[in-house]
Amino acid sequence: MSGAPALQTRALNLPRHVAIIMDGNGRWAKKRLLPRAAGHKAGVDAVRRVTRHARAIGIEALTIYAFSSENWRRPEEEIGDLMGLLRLFIRSDLAELVRENVRLKIIGDYHRFPGDVVTLIDDAVSRCSANTGPILAIALNYGAQAELVRAVRRLAERLSPEQIDAAAIEGELETRDMPPLDLLIRTSGEHRLSNFLLWQAAYAELLFVDTLWPDFGEADLDEAVAAFGTRNRRFGGL
Ligand code: FPP
Fold first, then answer.
1. What confidence score (pLDDT) does residue 171 get?
2. Of 73, 93, 133, 234, which has the maximum CB count within 10 A?
3. Is 13 in the pocket of ligand 1 (CB under 6 A)?
4. Is the C-beta atom of 225 inside 6 A of ligand 1?
5. Nearest CA among 155, 211, 154 for reference residue 187
6. Cα radius of gyration rounded to whole Å, the chain
7. What per-residue confidence (pLDDT) applies to 12?
8. pLDDT for position 25
9. CA atoms lying within 13 Å on the CB side of residue 120
10. DSSP code of residue 181
11. Residues 142, 68 contacting (CB under 8 angstroms)
12. Atom 6, ligand 1: which residue's CA is nearest?
């Protein structure tokens, strides 16, 4: 009996939607004198750990920043490595996502990716389309400013200026069918949003941790969720 109220409070304070800027793969590899690709590979292992744990603790939606619209500036070889890991991840983990009732979603313009990757992604999303459980959104060639420009342009085509309000914009965002973003985590000690979910982060709690992404594990997610639980969210009120 004594533990029950605390548990209940924890459950009430669980963030519904968590987003993660998975940073620090390169530095993780460098510290070990490994190529950057090894850091990204270890980053995928962290993705697997953290997505599983997020499901286990009841987080309804998780959005991960796997490739930003600015990542095209990286050397071609590294972009190729990231594409390869994405292929591998889909091939090795799709069955689990289907079985675990995960709704897989992509945000961002992934159609710029190589044709076979686009096909793999489309197939993966469609194989999860009957699922009804937690959402895993992977941001691929995503940039928040481009998302907002697209949204406003679409609205401008069919609405007059005074009809364009926050709700209308939200209805055009790629996250429109997801719960509001509660918690945004960035790893590796950098304190930036890097064009990720700028609109959605308006009232999110921000958490910057020093852990490099490949080292991020179940306990780190638990700590982040616990930190969220202690925050006093006022949404502009008192
Ligand atoms: C940032 O680390 C990380 C990325 C640019 C890519 C994140 C990608 C993954 C974790 C793997 C792919 C994901 C899936 C779902 C298959 P960095 O390279 O900028 O690290 P650094 O700042 O230390 O150099």
1. 98
2. 93
3. no
4. no
5. 211
6. 18
7. 66
8. 98
9. 18
10. P
11. yes
12. 66
Give the closest residue (by CA) to ligand 1 atom 3: 23
Q: Which domains does the chain have, with CATH numbers?
A: 21-224 (3.40.1180.10)
Compute, in angstroms, the gap from residue 35 CA to the centroid of ligand 1. Answer: 13
Ligand 1: which residue has its CA nearest to atom 10? 43
Model pLDDT, residue 234: 82
| Closest by Cα among 39, 50, 142, 141 to 93 | 50
Q: Label residue 45 exposed, middle or buried (CB < 10 Å: 0-12, 13-18, 19+).
A: exposed
pLDDT at 7: 47
Ligand 1 neighbourhood includes 143 CB (under 6 angstroms)? no
Residue 179 Cα to ligand 1 middle (Å): 25
What is the structure's pLDDT at 232? 81
How many angstroms does the Cα of residue 113 sit away from the middle of ligand 1? 16
Query: Which regions of the chain are under pLDDT 50?
Result: 1-10
CA 212 to centroid of ligand 1, rounded, Å:
10
Cβ 22 vs Cβ 50: under 8 Å: no
* Ligand 1 site, residue 106, Cβ cutoff 6 A: no
